[in-house]
C-alpha cells in the first residue's frame, strides 16, 4: 500500500523534474502550509562565498566582451526553460512560502515577463550624442557593464525578485551571485538550475558564457554579509525590511559600492465619494488580503470618505468574513498561512496595540489548522492614524479611517516614513490628477482606480523615503546595472578648450 502523499514526498519529485539533486546537510526547509520539514540541505561556507564572488568576477571579465544582443540570447533561452517548468516551479513556490496556486504560477510568469523584457532591452542600451560647444568635436555617453551584482532576496517573492535583477544584469554584461532567503532555499535551487541549464544550451549553440556567471549561496546572514562587504561586488541589490536596509546601505556606501534597496511599504488607498464601490471592493480585497498580507505592496491603510463610509464598510466586512482561509493548494482558498509563527505573533501584537489605541478589530483570529501559522485577515476601524497604523506589519491587517477633507487626507497619506505604493479610487479628474501631481502621493508607485499591488514588468518598481529609493524593472532601471562614460572626440586639427579657456604654450 502506498503511503499518503505529503508535501515532503512531493517536493523531491518536483525538484527532480526541474533538474535539482539535493545535497543533504543541516539546513532545514519547511513548508508554512503544514509546518512539516521538506528537506535538509547543505549550506555554503564563508570560504565558498568568497570563491563564488571570485568566480563571478572572473566571469564578468569575459562576459562584458560578449555583444549585448548575444547576451540577450542567453536570457531568451532562460525564458524557454521557465516556460517549460512553470507549473512545477509555481507549485514549489506555493509549497515553500504558502502562496495560493495562482500566485505561485504568477510569480513564475513574472520571471518569464522580465526575461522577455530584457531580451528586447539587449538591443536598446542607448547612450546620447551631445552637442559640443567646440568646433569639430563630438560628445557622447556610452554605457558599460558594471561588474559583479550581488542579489539578496526575501521570502515573499522567492524567485521573481532575483530574476528581475538577474535578467537585466546579464544583458548589461554582469555576473550575478544570489543569496536567497533562508525560508525559500528549495525554490532558489530550482530557479538557479533552470538558468544553469539555459547557460549550458547557450554554450552548446556556440555561445561563450563563462563558468561562475550565475552563483548561488545557500545559508544564513553571514553569506549576505559577504556580498555586502566584498569590494569585488559592484552592486548589492537587497530586498527586505527597512532595518535590513539601514545595515546594508551604509556598509556598501562605506566601500563606495552601489546599493539598490527595495525595503518596507505602508501603502494606502483613498476612496472618494465618486468612486465605483464595486470596483473598489475588488481592488481593496486583493490588495489587502492577497499573499496573506505579505507583499511589500500590500494595502495597509484605507481612507474612506465619510459620505460612503457606512455604505462601503459593511460590504468590505462581509468580504473579509467570507474569504476562505486554509491550505493555499486547495481550490477556493484565497488566504494561506503566514510564513512562520513569528509573523503570526507580530500580527497579534499589532492588533493588541490597535485595540489599546481605540481601534475596533474585525477578524484577525488565529486559525488552528494543518500545523501552519494561519489567521483570518483583520479589518481594523481606527479613529486616527496612530500607533501601529504608522508601522508596517507584514500580515493581513487593514486599518480603515474616515475622512472628510481631501487635502488633509493627502497629507496623512504621505505622513508615514515609507513610500512604496499608493492608490486612489475616484472618478473625479481633479482628485486623480492631484494625487498623481508633485503635491500628491510621495510614493514610487501611484495608481488610480486600482490597488497598490500587482505591478507589471513594464513599469519601474520601487519607492522613496524608508523604502530605499531603488528601482527594478521597467523604463531605465537597466542603468543601475551599468556604468556611464562621457566621451569627447576631436576630429579637427586644432585643440580649442571649453568655456573659452586659453592655454598657449608656444
Description:
With about 500 residues, this protein is of the alpha/beta class. The protein has 2 domains: about 5-265 and about 470-485, Aldehyde Dehydrogenase, Chain A, domain 1 (3-Layer(aba) Sandwich), CATH 3.40.605.10; about 265-450, Aldehyde Dehydrogenase, Chain A, domain 2 (3-Layer(aba) Sandwich), CATH 3.40.309.10. About 40% of the residues lie in helices and about 20% in strands. The chain has helices at about 5-15, 45-65, 70-85, 85-95, 100-120, 160-170, 185-205, 220-230, 240-255, 275-290, 310-320, 340-355, 405-415, 430-435, and strands spanning about 25-30, 35-40, 130, 135-145, 150, 175-180, 215, 235-240, 260, 265-270, 300-305, 360-365, 365, 375, 380, 395-405, 420, 420-425, 445-450, 465, 480-490. The strands form 6 sheets. The protein has a 7-stranded mixed sheet, with helices on both faces. Strands 7-6-5-8-9 form a 5-stranded parallel sheet, sandwiched between helices. β5, α6 (about 160-170) and β6 form a beta-alpha-beta unit. The longest helix is centred in the N-terminal third of the chain and has 21 residues, at about 100-120. The radius of gyration is 25 Å and the shape is globular. The model has no long low-confidence stretch (mean pLDDT about 95). GO terms for molecular function: aldehyde dehydrogenase (NAD+) activity. Belongs to the aldehyde dehydrogenase family.
Amino acid at each position: 500500500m502506498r503511503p499518503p502523499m505529503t508535501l515532503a514526498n512531493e517536493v523531491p519529485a518536483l525538484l527532480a523534474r526541474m533538474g535539482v539533486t539535493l545535497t543533504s546537510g543541516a539546513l532545514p526547509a519547511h513548508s508554512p502550509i503544514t509546518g512539516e520539514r521538506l528537506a535538509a540541505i547543505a549550506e555554503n561556507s564563508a570560504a565558498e562565498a568568497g570563491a563564488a564572488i571570485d568566480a563571478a568576477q572572473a566571469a564578468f571579465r569575459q562576459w562584458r566582451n560578449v555583444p549585448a544582443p548575444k547576451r540577450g540570447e542567453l536570457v531568451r533561452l532562460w525564458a524557454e526553460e521557465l516556460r517549460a517548468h512553470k507549473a512545477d516551479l509555481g507549485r514549489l513556490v506555493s509549497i515553500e512560502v504558502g502562496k495560493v496556486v495562482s500566485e505561485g504560477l504568477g510569480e513564475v510568469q513574472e520571471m518569464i515577463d522580465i526575461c522577455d523584457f530584457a531580451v528586447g532591452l539587449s538591443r536598446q542600451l542607448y547612450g546620447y550624442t551631445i552637442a559640443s560647444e567646440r568646433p569639430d568635436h563630438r560628445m557622447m555617453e556610452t554605457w558599460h557593464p558594471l561588474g559583479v551584482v550581488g542579489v539578496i532576496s526575501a521570502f515573499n517573492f522567492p524567485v521573481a525578485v532575483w530574476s528581475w535583477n538577474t535578467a537585466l544584469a546579464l544583458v548589461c554584461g554582469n555576473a550575478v551571485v544570489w543569496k536567497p532567503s533562508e525560508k525559500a532555499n528549495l525554490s532558489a535551487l530550482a530557479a538557479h538550475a533552470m538558468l544553469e541549464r539555459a547557460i549550458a544550451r547557450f554554450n552548446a549553440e556556440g555561445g561563450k558564457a563563462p563558468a561562475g556567471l550565475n552563483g548561488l549561496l545557500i545559508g544564513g546572514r553571514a553569506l549576505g554579509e559577504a556580498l555586502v562587504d566584498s569590494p569585488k561586488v559592484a552592486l548589492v541589490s537587497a530586498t527586505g525590511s527597512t532595518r535590513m536596509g539601514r545595515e546594508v546601505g551604509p556598509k556598501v556606501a562605506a566601500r563606495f559600492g552601489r546599493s539598490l534597496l527595495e525595503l518596507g511599504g505602508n501603502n494606502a488607498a483613498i476612496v472618494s465619494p465618486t468612486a465605483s464601490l464595486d470596483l473598489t471592493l475588488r481592488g481593496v480585497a486583493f490588495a489587502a488580503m492577497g499573499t496573506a498580507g505579505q507583499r511589500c505592496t500590500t494595502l495597509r491603510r484605507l481612507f474612506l470618505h465619510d459620505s460612503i463610509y457606512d455604505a462601503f464598510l459593511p460590504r468590505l466586512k462581509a468580504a473579509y468574513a467570507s474569504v476562505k482561509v486554509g491550505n493555499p493548494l486547495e481550490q477556493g482558498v484565497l488566504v494561506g498561512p503566514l510564513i512562520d509563527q513569528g509573523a503570526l505573533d507580530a500580527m497579534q501584537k499589532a492588533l493588541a496595540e490597535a485595540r489599546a489605541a481605540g481601534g475596533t478589530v474585525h477578524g484577525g483570529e488565529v486559525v488552528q489548522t494543518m500545523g501552519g501559522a494561519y489567521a483570518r485577515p483583520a479589518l481594523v476601524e481606527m479613529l486616527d492614524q496612530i500607533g501601529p497604523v504608522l508601522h508596517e506589519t507584514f500580515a493581513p491587517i487593514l486599518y480603515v479611517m474616515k475622512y472628510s477633507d481631501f487635502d488633509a487626507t493627502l497629507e496623512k497619506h504621505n505622513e508615514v516614513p515609507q513610500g512604496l505604493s499608493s492608490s486612489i479610487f475616484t472618478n473625479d479628474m481633479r482628485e486623480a490628477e492631484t494625487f498623481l501631481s508633485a503635491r500628491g502621493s510621495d510614493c514610487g508607485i501611484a495608481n488610480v482606480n486600482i490597488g497598490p499591488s500587482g505591478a507589471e514588468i513594464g513599469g519601474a518598481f520601487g519607492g522613496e523615503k524608508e523604502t530605499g529609493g531603488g528601482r527594478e524593472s521597467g523604463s531605465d532601471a537597466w542603468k543601475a546595472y551599468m556604468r556611464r562614460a562621457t566621451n569627447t572626440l576631436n576630429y579637427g586639427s586644432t585643440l580649442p578648450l571649453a568655456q573659452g579657456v586659453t592655454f598657449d604654450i608656444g
